[in-house]
Specification:
The protein has 8 helices and 6 strands, in the order ααααβαβαβββαβα. With 200 residues, it is of the alpha+beta class. The chain starts with a helix and ends with a helix.
Length: 200
């Protein structure tokens, strides 16, 4: 077998094993799923690992074959919950991102919402005033080549976690990535999420 063909076969095998791990075990981290898949396949963790896009495509195929109805219903439920949360947080200019937006969300998926406001403290006070329990953390993103450290508030809705990443209006004007080499994070306003729900 030619070397390039063998390399592609290994990448495809790891991508499909990683997709299964994400679908069945609730792993959300692509890098972790790929490393575990490579170990399961008895292959070294090398540069031959598939891209996140390759794993995402394998994940779509896996769910279409094995979890079609369950997955469709789960994504619809999560998008509905996201839309409700975005309505409640409308003053902070919310955008939906992540697996709930792109349709790969599994049974253990979080809802990821970006808020664009001049004051992260205003978001925190909003949660405190409404007695909404939350946890705090930080996310590292890139706006162009510039690193951005963004506060994250995690709340719960019916046992589903909603991560609220707070960014400034300036960061809405440019593309955001999770790494310098990563792809642009897709995001959608409430109207787009409504349209996705109507189509499903």
């Amino acid at each position: 077998m030619p070397r390039e063909s063998a390399r592609n076969d290994r990448r495809s095998r790891i991508a499909h094993l990683a997709a299964r791990l994400m679908a069945e075990d609730g792993i959300e981290d692509y890098a972790l799923a790929k490393r575990k898949a490579a170990r399961q396949a008895g292959l070294p963790e090398t540069r031959e690992l598939p891209t996140n896009d390759e794993v995402e495509e394998a994940l779509r195929s896996y769910r279409e074959i094995y979890h079609r109805e369950e997955h469709r219903d789960r994504v619809r439920l999560l998008r509905g919950m996201a839309l409700r949360a975005m309505g409640e947080l409308a003053q902070f200019n919310p955008y939906l991102t992540g697996s709930v937006l792109n349709g790969t969300a599994g049974r253990y998926a979080d809802i990821n919402i970006q808020l664009f406001t001049d004051s992260a403290k205003a978001v925190e006070l909003y949660l405190i005033d409404r007695q909404i329990p939350y946890r705090t953390a930080q996310a590292r993103l890139y706006c162009g080549a510039e690193p951005v450290i963004a506060p994250v508030f995690t709340i719960n809705d019916e046992e589903t976690e909603i991560e609220l990443t707070v960014l400034t209006p300036r960061e809405l004007r440019g593309p955001l990535r999770t790494s310098l080499e990563g792809k642009i994070i897709d995001r959608a306003r409430p109207g787009t999420v409504e349209q996705l729900l109507a189509e499903s």
